[in-house]
């Protein structure tokens, strides 16, 4: 399926900075009617509200609670596309003393959070032939041992995204986004450097939705990894 953002209503989680903020601005530039800014602290969206006025609306986000996510979906009942961008990344090696606790936290946000979002918004996305975009990262395809728990959570979220695509065939456009290092605050916190800005990812998402593309590798680093994986992805995952 294909999806054109023009005239549509979107909800973006983690919309106040980095890739999430870039997606908001890209969607509006491409003609989106309105974007809900789903964030933990609604005061953090002041800059976007001042710039876009009634084109944006902040909503409180708590990915750890199905009740809270469902309430958010009721508040944003006119949504056509959901971008699940919010996530957490914690440096944890596979033999670290806190590996279990770190993995539990990252699974709760990065995986169970996606499941909660999908369950809450499924009725309206199906009714509207809408779209769901999931930020999965190249970490879902290859593990960096320093971030083993994060990579594990992203591999799991990628698996759930594949399931959603099959569940929603001919109903909802699903895009699995696998960026490499992108110049964001999170990348800085993780000690990663990149010449690619978040705007690149945002624009590639718009293009992928319009093309009905499931796997998206938006930057050069991701495309190199994706080119090695694509044969399997096409013949097995997308079959």
TrEMBL record:
Q: Which InterPro entries match?
A: NAD(P)-bd_dom_sf (IPR036291), Sc_DH/Rdtase_CS (IPR020904), SDR_fam (IPR002347)
Q: Which domain of life is it from?
A: Bacteria
Keywords for the protein's UniProt record, in alphabetical order? Oxidoreductase
Q: Is Kinase there in the keyword field?
A: no
Offer one Pfam family short name for this entry: adh_short
Name the Gene Ontology molecular function terms of this record. oxidoreductase activity
Recorded hits in SUPFAM superfamilies, A to Z, give: NAD(P)-binding Rossmann-fold domains
Keyword NADP part of the UniProt annotation? no
Q: Which family does it belong to?
A: Belongs to the short-chain dehydrogenases/reductases (SDR) family.
Q: What is this protein called?
A: SDR family oxidoreductase
